[in-house]
Amino acid sequence: MTERHTERAVVAKRVDSGTPDTTEIRELARAAGYEAVGEVTQTRTEDPAMHVGEGKAATLAATVAREDASVVVFDNQLGPYQTYNLGNELPEGVRILDRFRLILEIFGQRAQTRKAQLQVELAELRYELPRAEAKASLARRDERPGFMGLGEYDESREEDIKAQISRIRDELERIEETEQHRREQRRESGFDLVALAGYTNAGKSTLLRRLAADVDVDENEGVHPDLDTTAESEDRLFTTLGTTTRKAAMDQRDVLVTDTVGFISDLPHWLVESFKSTLDSVYRADLVLLVVDVSEPVEKIREKLVTCHDTLYERNEAPIVTVLNKTDKVDDRELERKREALSALAPGPVAVSAKTGGSVDTLCERIHRELPDYERERLVLPMTDETMSVVSWIHDHANVETVDYGDQVVIEFEARPPVVKQSRAKAGDLVEASA
Q1: Has this prediction a pTM greater than 0.85?
Q2: 3-class secondary structure, 184
Q3: Domains of the chain (ranges plus CATH)?
Q4: Residue 379, H or E segment
Q5: pLDDT digits (tens, 9 = 90+) for 35-74
Q6: Whole-number Å distance between alpha carbons of 30 and 34
C-alpha cells in the first residue's frame, strides 16, 4: 500500500434515536489514513436537503474551519443532492465522504491483486449506478442537461456503467474458475481447507499466524502457488482485503488455513455482492472458523454473529465453529457469562487467545474433529520400478500406518477420500503395467 500524507478529518453521524456512536467510523477513518480531529453528531430524523439539520450543518462547517480539516467523513449514506448541499455549506475544497465511499477508498488502498482491484472497481460502479440513474431520470424529467448544479448529464454514462459491470463480472468468474480448480487440486493433494471468517479486528490474521507458526511452505512445488508466508496482524480495520493462505502447524493432518476479508456492520447488499468471489474461499471450505472478539459487549457480539450467520449460511455447507478470541482481555467469570449468553448462536464455541496462544491447542483438536473423516485403505502393489514412487506419494498425502515389503508391497493408510481415490488409480496403473 502506498504511503500517504495523513489528512485531518471531522467525523459526522446522525441517528434517528439514541446516542450516536462514532467508534467504528473513527477506526474506519484511521484505516483509510485520516486523522479524526473532531466530530459532530445529531439525533433526529433525516433532513432531505442536507441529511443533518440546517443548524447542525453550520456547526459542522465551523468545526471543519476551527480544526483546519480537509475531509468530512459521514457515518451515514448520503444522496448526491445532500452531498452537493453540504458541500456548499463547508469551506471551499473540503471533501465529503459518506460511509460507503470511505469503505471503497479503504478497499482501493488495500487492493494488491487483480482480483481485489476488480472487486473494488465493481463495488465503485455499483455505488455510482443508482446515482447515475437518478441523475438521468431527473435530467429527462426536467428536460435539461444539468441536475441541480451536480454537473453535466452524460446520456451514455448509465449504459457505460452497466457495460463495465458486466465486463468485470465476466473476468471475476474466470478468476474464480481458476481458483476453484486450485482448491480441488489442493484437496486431491491431501489438504483440508479451513477458512477464517468474522468481523474486522476480531483477530483473524493473528490467529492465522498462531495456527501456522514456524511453518515454511515450499511454493515451488506447484501444489499451492498462492500461499503467503506472512499475514499482517495490525490493530486496524481492513488490514486484510484479499485472502492469505498458509499451511497450518497440525500434527494430525495437512490443513491449509485462509484468512479472508473481514465483515463490517451495515454493509449494503451491493457491496457484499461485489466481494462475493472473495467469500467463495469461505463458502467452499471444509470448515469455517467464525472468529469474534469476546471482549466486546455481549449485545454487540450477538449482533455480529447474526450478521455473519445470515451471510455464511446462505451458501455455506461446511460446519461452522465459533471461536471466542481475545480471552486475554476478559476474566473467567465474564467469559463464562458471555459463553452462556451466546449459546443459542454459538453452541460449543472454542475460547482462545490468538495473541498469547492460550487454548490454541484445544482449537487444533476441535479442527481435527470437525474436518471430514479420513477413509482407511489397504493396497497391495506389485513390486516394479515405479512402486516406490507411488509409496512415496502416499506417504506425502496420507497418514501411513504400515508398509510391508516382500514379493509385493502392502501399504495401509488413512486419507481424505480424493487421495484414497487417486492412490487406487495409481495402484491400478501399476498392476496394469506389470501384467
Answers
A1: no
A2: helix
A3: 7-107 (3.40.50.11060), 113-176 (no CATH), 189-370 (3.40.50.300), 375-434 (3.30.1370)
A4: strand 375-382
A5: 999 999 999 999 999 999 999 999 999 999 999 999 999 9
A6: 5
